[in-house]
């Protein structure tokens, strides 16, 4: 009688790295001063600086993470600072 072939164990799943929840302020450039809060009840996300008290609010979905709110804030700052030339 032969030995039964054993089934190979599946490889362990890779752990996802945690994303940041505190960021550098785009106005005062103070590191780790911007905190993002997500209110899923009202579907509002807010990023605010503890140093210069600047803040940004946006709508969120179930998949929104704090980095998404901060990225939208940075994109909005760039859009305001670099307006498109309409009068070509």
UniProtKB/TrEMBL annotation:
<dbReference type="GO" id="GO:0008023">
    <property type="term" value="C:transcription elongation factor complex"/>
</dbReference>
<keyword id="KW-0648">Protein biosynthesis</keyword>
<dbReference type="Pfam" id="PF05129">
    <property type="entry name" value="Zn_ribbon_Elf1"/>
</dbReference>
<comment type="function">
    <text>Transcription elongation factor implicated in the maintenance of proper chromatin structure in actively transcribed regions.</text>
</comment>
<dbReference type="GO" id="GO:0000993">
    <property type="term" value="F:RNA polymerase II complex binding"/>
</dbReference>
<dbReference type="GO" id="GO:0006368">
    <property type="term" value="P:transcription elongation by RNA polymerase II"/>
</dbReference>
<keyword id="KW-0863">Zinc-finger</keyword>
<dbReference type="GO" id="GO:0003746">
    <property type="term" value="F:translation elongation factor activity"/>
</dbReference>
<keyword id="KW-0251">Elongation factor</keyword>
<keyword id="KW-0805">Transcription regulation</keyword>
<keyword id="KW-0479">Metal-binding</keyword>
<dbReference type="GO" id="GO:0008270">
    <property type="term" value="F:zinc ion binding"/>
</dbReference>
<dbReference type="InterPro" id="IPR007808">
    <property type="entry name" value="Elf1"/>
</dbReference>
<keyword id="KW-0539">Nucleus</keyword>
<dbReference type="InterPro" id="IPR038567">
    <property type="entry name" value="T_Elf1_sf"/>
</dbReference>
<comment type="similarity">
    <text>Belongs to the ELOF1 family.</text>
</comment>
<keyword id="KW-0804">Transcription</keyword>
<protein>
    <recommendedName>
        <fullName>Transcription elongation factor 1 homolog</fullName>
    </recommendedName>
</protein>
<keyword id="KW-0862">Zinc</keyword>
